[in-house]
Structure formats: structure tokens, C-alpha cells
Design brief:
mainly beta; 1 helix; globular
Length: about 190
Amino acid sequence: MNHSGSFSTQTAAWSSLDPTEKGFECVWLKEQRATGSLLRLDEDKNPLRLVYEFCWNSAFQVEAARIQTQKENRTLELDLRYDRGWYKGEERLTEFDACTDLDLWPTPLTNTFAIRRLNLAIGEKKSFQTLLIHGPTLQCRKVSQIYTRLDEHHYLFEDPAANFRARLQVDDQGLIMHYPELFVREA
């Protein structure tokens, strides 16, 4: 797996595998920046449009996130930055001080940040705190996540509080190829 903190210029696209929340996502990756957009049905079967931009450092820790969601004729925006803690504008979000990663639902892209940052050896397992953003509402919460590297292209992802486990298949750059029952890479 490429262990540098950046990507070559490329695009990636995923389709939703969940029959109740059909959708499609496309992201443009260049060096230490990702710009993406997704269209899908949310959990209430309403149309959802989500646009995001992430910037990260050479250790693959997200340093800035801008997320905009459009749902039911309303637009919500969230700008976060990391500087020895998470900030929303000038407000420090102290409840997320222990969070080393950022995860945005519903995109498989943000799993890549943890996979690349952790740089696990095969068989190695790590647990950490994550700032989880629910895309439709932009609500933030702290969750524990666990990644175990199973082999060269597979990781076990766990969210103990949600009693959730998934065996993720990744490419050589750590981008999700298959996320069982949720996402499949199209390009």
C-alpha cells in the first residue's frame, strides 16, 4: 500500500448497495485534498445532496473539513478544522479533544483516512476516538472505532457502540473497493 500522505490526481466513485438508500458518490483526489459530492436517498427516503472537501496532513490526519448538505429545501453547512483540537469557526469543540479522526456518514472515503493514518501491519488492531458527522443533519458525536488489518487488502472495521462490524476491501491506496451491504467502488 502506498504510505505517503497524498494521492496522485484521480477520481473515485461508489454506488450504494443498500436498497433502501440508493445513491452515488464521486470524489476528486489530488495530493492532500478530496472534493466530493453524493446524491442518495436518506433513511426517510428523501433526496439528499451532500458536498464535501477534506484537507489532511502528511500523516493522513484530517486538518480541515467543509461539508454542505441539501435536504428538504434547506441547506446546512459545517466547517471544521483541526489544530491540536477540533474547531468550528473560532469555537473549540472540547468534547472532541480525544478524537484523532473524522468520519462522515454516508461516505466510504473517510475510512481511508484512518486506514492510511494507522498504517497497520497485517494482524495488528487499533482502537481510537472519532468525530462522527451524520451527513443528513451535520450532527457531530464522538464514537470509538476499531480497525484490524486482516491481509494486504482487507480490514475489519468495528463500531462497538453500534454493534457494527464490516470486512472492508481496499485498493493499494487504501480506498474502499467493497463495503459489504453499503458501498461498492465503480471507478
